[in-house]
Amino acid sequence: MIPVILSGGNGTRLWPMSRKGYPKQFLPLVGSESMFQQTLQRLPDYAKPPILVCNESHRFIVAEQTQSLGCMPHTILLEPFGRNTAPAVAIAAFQILAEQQDDNIMLVLPADHSISDKQAYHAALAKANTLALEGKLVTFGIEPSKPETGYGYVRKGRPLPEFGYEVSEFVEKPDKATAEVYLSSGEYLWNSGMFMMDAQVYLDELKVHALGIYDACKAAFENMNRDYDFGRIPSKIFQQCPDDSIDYAVMEHTAKAVTLPLDCSWSDVGVWSALWDVLEKDTDGNVMVGDVVTHNAKNSYIRSNLRLTALVGVEDLIVVDSKDALLIAHKDHSQDIKHIVNDLQKNQRCEAEQHREVARPWGTYDSINSGERFQVKRIRVNPGASLSLQKHHHRAEHWIVVSGTAIVTCGDKEFLLSENQSTYIPIGEVHRLRNPGKIPLDLIEVQSGSYLGEDDIVRLQDVYGRTGTGTEPVTG
After folding, report:
1. Between 2 and 226, whose confidence is greater?
2. Residue 197's closest CA among 109, 133, 259, 260?
3. Are 109 and 50 in contact (CB under 8 A)?
4. Which of 169, 327, 399, 475 lies 20 to 30 Å from 353 when distance is taken between CA atoms?
5. Which helix or strand (DSSP H or E) is residue 120 part of?
């Protein structure tokens, strides 16, 4: 069994914690590890090294989080942009079949789910494997616990001889009244978005029911560029691929679709109210993360990442305070948070895309203050890491080391900076920052100039394979 982990989502309904630059699957929202890491950790021991599918802009996050677990993926497939689940799984299937392995069974998993009952989950995987070996396309249906309007549903058809059911139909997210009918009938399961299938069977069905996706993905795979552990899907070809899910492209049309009921304390953690559901609460029904105090507040989710947050005399709220945005919402309207993100995107607000603290392959930077012709950042460089050799056309930089040791390249000079020492990088000067030590390097960077945008960067050398100019909106 070969896990195929899909981690290309943006998680807009979990804004402001989840953003396009660092979405929910990479955040430790449930436990100390990210949901992506938890997905890897709960794979059965007999599973083969996973194939990871992610957006190209998240490649360093994926690599870092797998390495921190000691996980060696089979490969990491980089999408230049999202085209939904059907194409992502198709390219993974082509990858599997190209290697002519004996075992071509794919376990397709989103990277952002929470599952508490690992034993029940593994038992269901074993059953699904049996069905997949018989040529079935298996979807895992979650036993519903309430009339949920945020999930699609699968209607059970005729029972299969051993376990599972034929799929009678897939239905869209219902309204509350329809969801109550589904729950009382006992005929419907939540559509989890998890699948198990033979790679060849999936591609055969895709070719029949969605030939455009099949042809585009076949061409994209055949022209894929290999870069160390990464497989870069060519954007010009992938752009021609229709955008569609496995459900719409294949599962709703194939005669081989079956569903296997799964009861394992599952949640897709798609909204803040779902996160409230799965986390431990105090005696007033509150989930509190960070520096939070309450008085006569009940059944709320409160998260404070920066400062003290206090709630008095309120109920059923979502309060999330991040470094650059504060969200207050009624718990019953968690699904509507995506509309705020849409408005931010329309107005080209950076809060829709990036956190104030931004992850880079060498570490992080946090834009702590800015004004006319100046910007102040706190920069952390990981041990042994290095920023690119670069220059700027419009800004000068002052660096002050707070902790650790830096090796600075400035023009034709290279020198060491220690704590409380500083240096100046003039406009247009070629420079680089490197951490030669065993502990993180922390420094304060003060930028000054007529233009301070992240695209004012020309990379001359870069160990991370990024582009030579500022086409990627990053520092360093």
Report:
1. 2
2. 133
3. no
4. 399
5. helix 118-133
Length of the chain measured in residues = 476
Q: Which of 232, 235, 240 is nearest to 214 (CA)?
A: 240
Q: What's the gap between Cα 285 and its chain centre?
A: 29
Cα–Cα distance for residue pair 335/144, rounded to 1 Å? 19
Q: Is the pLDDT of residue 471 over 50?
A: no
In this predicted model, what pLDDT tens digit does every residue of 252-261 receive, in sequence order? Answer: 999 999 999 9
The radius of gyration of the chain's CA atoms, rounded to the nearest angstrom, is 24
Give the model confidence (pLDDT) of 168-210 as tens digits: 999 999 999 999 999 999 999 999 999 999 999 999 999 999 9
H or E element, residue 370:
strand 363-371
Distance CA 430, CA 15 (A): 38
**Residue in this structure with the two tokens 């910007």, named with its chain if needed:** 375
Beta-bridged to residue 294, according to DSSP, are 311
Is pTM beyond 0.85 here?
A: yes
What residue spans of 44-111 are helical by DSSP H?
A: 59-68, 85-98
Q: Nearest CA to 63 among 361, 385, 434, 355?
A: 361
Specify the 3-state DSSP secondary structure of 302. Answer: strand
174 neighbors 151 (Cβ within 8 angstroms):
no
Residue 470 has pLDDT above 50, yes or no: no
pLDDT digits (tens, 9 = 90+) for 397-422: 999 999 999 999 999 999 999 999 99
Query: In whole angstroms, what separates CA 443 from the centre of its chain?
Result: 28
Burial class (CB in 10 A: 0-12, 13-18, 19+), 283: exposed
Residue 67 structure tokens: 């390495």
3-state secondary structure of 466: coil
Q: What is the torsional sign of CA 234, 235, 241, 244?
A: positive
For the chain, the distance separating the N- and C-terminal CA atoms, rounded to the nearest angstrom, is: 40
